[in-house]
Amino acid sequence: MNDEHMMNVIDESDVLGSTAVITKLSDLVALEFNAIETYEAAIERLENLDYRAKLTEFLGEHERHLLELCDAIIQEGGTPPDGGYYKQLLIKGPVVMAGIGGDKAILQAMLLNENLTNKLYQNANDEIFPGYIQLKLKQALGEVRHHRVWIESAVENLND
Fold first, then answer.
1. Distance CA 8, CA 98 (A)
2. DSSP summary character for residue 46
3. How many domains does the chain have?
4. I need a labelling partner for 42 at 20 to 30 A (CA). Which of 9, 12, 82, 106 fits?
């Protein structure tokens, strides 16, 4: 076997067990509930219709992530949380307050949230989940990275 093939072989003992999978995915479910609430608050407060449309698209992706994570928890024998249970005020609060400062302030608050979301999805992707979950987490990471890049660009354009 060549070295490249050896690096792609995963030792089954490295794959997270069901209890760890359920715990880690439950944290992501809570994050997604909070992200959805935050996106809804931002969309409601944004004045620019193009920004609203884009964030509505991103909201749909977060809603899909939530459903996929809940399905995975159920497949692993767990019960998904039914809401966000941490950092809710820290995540949604700045977006609500930013509404006073207009679109730029709202997008800056959303960027902070996407930075957190990206970090937590990157951390999840650093773990070894069962294959079907790993694929969903990789896809979600790609999408939240796209969200962050788009929001960064929108904020920069508002600076011009």
1. 45
2. -
3. 1
4. 82
